[in-house]
Amino acid sequence: MTDPKTSMVIGIGNPLRGDDGAGYRLARCLQSEERADLKVIATQQLHVELAATVAAAERVLFIDASHGLEPCGRWSSPHVEPLASPGPDWIAGSTLSHQLSPPALLELTKALYQHRPSAWQLLLPGQQWDHSEALSPLTAAAVAAAFPLIEAWSRGDA
Amino acid sequence: MNQHRTITIDPVTRIEGHAKITIHLAEDGQVADARFHVSEYRGFEKFCEGRPFTEMAAITARICGICPVSHLLTAARTGDKILAVQIPEAAEKLRRLMNLAQIIQSHALSFFHLSSPDFLLGWDSDPQRRNIFGLIAANPDLARGGIRLRQFGQGVIEALGGRKIHAAWAVPGGVRSPLSQDSRDQILQALPEAYAVTGQGLELFKQLLDQHLREELRVFGDFPSLFLGLVGHGDRWEHSSGTGCLGLRVMDSDGHVLADGVREDDYASVISEAVEPWTYLKFPYLKGLGPEAGSYRVGPLARLNLCERIGSERADRELEEFRHRGGRVVTASFLNHLARLIEVLACLEQMELLLHDPLLLDPHVRARAEVNCREAVGVSEAPRGTLFHHYRVDDNGLIQQVNLIIATGQNNRAMNRTIAQIARHYLTPTELARPQLNEGLLNRIEAGIRCFDPCLSCSTHAAGSMPLQIQLISAEGELLKEVRRG
Hints:
The structure holds two protein chains of two kinds. Chain A is α/β, with parallel strands linked by helices. Helix content of chain A is 29%, strand content 19%. Chain A is built from four helices and five strands; from the N terminus they run E-H-E-H-E-E-H-E-H. A five-stranded mixed β-sheet of chain A has the order 2-1-3-5-4. The two termini of chain A are 12 Å apart. The relative contact order of chain A is 0.25. The model of chain A has no long low-confidence stretch (mean pLDDT 86). In chain B, strand 16 and strand 17 form a beta hairpin. Chain B folds into two domains: 106 residues, no CATH class; 367 residues, Orthogonal Bundle (Cytochrome-c3 Hydrogenase, chain B), CATH 1.10.645. Chain B is built from 17 helices and 17 strands. The chains are: A alpha/beta, B alpha+beta.
């Protein structure tokens, strides 16, 4: 049984950039439920100081929008997948700047606090990234489909 | 054989946004020029049209996730002027407190995590280790201290606005909520650690400047230019317009003041913006002098040059030492890093003063009014430099036109001059003749850009009228193809 107090959901995105805001919006919805079993963070970008917060968690789920097309050209459906530790050369392909990727944040947490929580990601397919406060129909449907996936993850079913 | 070669660094790392640098060689093999290209553009000015001006703080705060507070406060300031109200004194002090916190957290990230890996690990060190992870391995206390300082600044913003990023707390007429006594006490308790980390950073960096970084002072963007920024009454260092602010000042490298006390409403009488076909970033300049001679720098270095004093004991001691090191008007862009640390110290001291002001806890923090003005300009000092918001609204307060002039854009010409200077110094014909360019040299060129800690997401917001030019040039310099838009 997972300790509910140590599960964290981090929704990433800019809600003024169309589908890019999907993860952020989903996290805001979860925050409004004021659930005791989840710590929920809605953020536009991952910043270095978030490492201290992540270090207190045992399990973390990152939710973000992705371009959505699978290699076969079909739209991907949202699913929770483990975020494995990156290989030893991961940093070579990473652009470290004012913001971090989920793997970089996890590695930073480990380097600073000697603890890397188990991590998963939930990618929501996106189509349009221009200035807009609306989600495309595809992404809105993916957001709706994501709630039961998060529920299952929070129970430790992922 | 005569050859024109172009060396491209793409993407530039450890800055916010997307950019590339091209270095152009002349026929004799010497570096002829270097250019900083911004290949991303964002259309926020157009996006804002038709929106209520009261939403501008929340909207512009989302231009990027790096400096939302600067946009928030400047939008609120512009909104005050559309309402034509004088905001409550407590609200003005609280906004100042938030801006100080924003400067602290931004400078902490820039110095400790984005730039210090170069200083401490070396320009030529393994690029896979020359980052925050390498810094943690080499100097864990410094790395943790930098994160704690960043957390401190973000914590103050959260205490005021309820959320670290995009706290839509500052509104036209004041702020939504006052500061609680508990929050004030918590900030005061955290101040000693923030002072300690800043002091460690200052001592370490000054030591490095004296020992290992002397060449960088001369080569990383040391040139005469104008400097622009806000100045306070009594020629003090200033970061916010409003009470206590004298206005904008423009100074040259010899210390001559070319414009002074310029009201924010009159910014357009002194500043113009030029565009170039090879970048989305605009080139603001001082009117009357033209885009080259009129180009100016903003940000930490400019602010320290423009003021006579900071107005607090420890920061003023550091300012004196800073001028002893670089002159009354410091022209070395590399000293932006030291200027950031001095500004962090200044912010901490000013924050401490504010936190002991009983008026800070006053519950009256918002003035309410209807639209009384159809046009307004708000200015503040963002961590990277002076930020302008200019709105025109209709009778219902709906935005008709927006102009945003962002710090990174104002440093555009200086960034280009900096990378050209570095390229000319380090990319000698011998270096260029090598089969592979030395990675450390390319890192130095990138680091020239990082002196300005640019935020490109904020700076490339124009839509619809920006020219775009793509040129394909042969090895002999012949233009083969060209695509032009706009």
